[in-house]
Input
Amino acid sequence: MVTRKECEARDRDDELKGFRDQFLLPDEVIYLDGNSLGPLPKVAAKRIQHVLAQEWGEDLIRSWNAHGWIDLPQKVGNKIARLIGAGTDNVVCADSTSVNLFKLLAAALRIRPDRKVVLSDTANFPTDLYIAQGLIELLGGSRELRLVETASVESEINSDVAVVMLTQVDYRTGGLHDIARVTQLAHEAGALMLWDLSHSAGALPVDLLGHGVDLAVGCGYKYLNGGPGAPAYLYVAPHLQDDIRPPLSGWMGHDRPFDFDQEYRPASGIARNLCGTPAILSLSALDAALDVIGAADMNAIRKKSQDITGLFMDLINERCGVFGFDLLTPNVPEKRGSQVSMTHANSYPIMAALIENGVIGDFRSPNVMRFGFAPLFLRFVDVWDAVDRLHGIMSERAWDRDEFKVKAAVT
Amino acid sequence: MVTRKECEARDRDDELKGFRDQFLLPDEVIYLDGNSLGPLPKVAAKRIQHVLAQEWGEDLIRSWNAHGWIDLPQKVGNKIARLIGAGTDNVVCADSTSVNLFKLLAAALRIRPDRKVVLSDTANFPTDLYIAQGLIELLGGSRELRLVETASVESEINSDVAVVMLTQVDYRTGGLHDIARVTQLAHEAGALMLWDLSHSAGALPVDLLGHGVDLAVGCGYKYLNGGPGAPAYLYVAPHLQDDIRPPLSGWMGHDRPFDFDQEYRPASGIARNLCGTPAILSLSALDAALDVIGAADMNAIRKKSQDITGLFMDLINERCGVFGFDLLTPNVPEKRGSQVSMTHANSYPIMAALIENGVIGDFRSPNVMRFGFAPLFLRFVDVWDAVDRLHGIMSERAWDRDEFKVKAAVT
Output
């Protein structure tokens, strides 16, 4: 069994160890929820001070030019592009993941007007499914959202399919779709491929251009550490950019927004996917945060992610196996993202007790305990200590007693 | 002619004079662009410090509940509701004005499925027109955006019209539509009425419930002082709320977002109009900013707005009449919002010279000089000084010479 001392040694050898100090992290907390909300990069706090005191406070409206607010969606998009294997001017940052998904899904259905089906899996993050449902209803019902089990996705890709819409990392199990393979199958069937990278960007290398992905969206507040509700992003492959007819055709996507023409005319390239005025405070925090992860080697991130998730799973098996946990996350490192999930009959109160003890993970209905492992700030000893605290909690109490179930219902 | 001394006296008697100190305003600047970006309320800066250090930095993911992030769109919406004559739970704050307009316009066209026309005027803010164009194109072209001159709007409301979509204050001239009258005409014709309040909320009293308005949207970063790109808001009349089928059906508008169901089921009431995860930094700044304007009497704001816009127009006529300015803004106080616009053959370089001299207004293509008068922080002496500086600039230079036209082209 791995000892705490060995974990300390691995931390000393960790090539990413210098990054932890770039985050503000509360004392005594082991934060295993960076996959839901990344912690505050010190440079983001500093940037926001500047935005408040100087940009908004002092320079006011002039900051649209003087501090580059007007170009921020593209600038931030280009920083994200480097994390996901996209090129310059393939990505813009704006709005929420849900809104961006709506934009690209609507555009994709226009590019494949004769095909009826949006194909996705039942494991997709619900808001992605809701957005597809809402869009299809809006369009009058001639399209169909076809939901299949994850294992059946590949065999269900056929010539009815206009778009295959998937989230690369399963938000519950942490299981990974094979981007290369699914994208290729979609293209062989004449469908477009749309990936949601919310749980993968910043956690593992993504190669959108290399795999010929058509469209992608993702989230700014998870592994990118952009802050709560940070703006999201969208990617359009270069060869498709001029085919996009933006359904949300706001002025920021206009070719000449400050001419104040009465007719919408889309900007050339990726900028046409912008809509309203960007939320500068939130966008600036993300812009600064990206400089932290942008300085890290994505292969080193992936390697450490696999190491610490693997260590967590090993320690759970070794020290907590007797307590009735079932790991949901693939044991093969190449098949999982950067999280570990498990179930237990008393998942909810156990997670509540862990959080009380300073180990912050989260609970996903109906019975999933989910732990995210962000390699930039987590140490091997954190993994060891987290399992140690879980072991302590499980040893002290009789978790099969009814009192815990009652507690779950009222917390 | 009004003297500076008389302006000082009016400032001493101003019942809103206590508000100016609640803003961070740069020295030596007379800020006549609060209609484009409101200045920084000190309380908003303080709130953002708290969001950074405590909420995001220390409490992390727990802040969704511990600091009420999850309810912030409704909480902020309710604060805005009090400024626009709406009731509790009639307004939510989210996304951009453009995105919110898309949501409500799409919903309105479903509520009036047999009517073809969206009626608006050529003076509407361009992004509103673009959004309507994009939506209509998305829906396949069976609908029509009918654009008429402002003076013809009332006579063009007929039984073809599904929705009348107007911005209350003309962003160029500052002229006001009559909300009561146009709403009534729309209803008599069986159409829905959708108002964009971006240039009116916070600048003049609005009575949405009193006038029976169906739908409204508006902006958070103008007179509400929520910061650059602050989230926008939308209003739905109580009797229509359950008829809204949200086209942007994201998880935040789901009846039970944390059940992670596969099927979208809209929340009851106004919350169904939410979509993705809210941008907490930007939303928190707006939340704090609203406490400033929320403490002011809207009738006092309107009275002072009419006084200072009137003073500006009088002083322009008296002191700058010889320089060839043409006022665009209605002289009758009841017929204008809180801005004054004028044209000049050399508008662009004159505005640039004014800004260099610390009087910040803005320029709107092709030749409009626009000055916003936000009553919460502007003084009567500011108005006097602004005209005085303009008079100085106009007196010092020969603005009909070609060098200024050249300068305009390169600035």
Notes: Residues 406-411 of chain A have pLDDT under 50 and may be disordered.
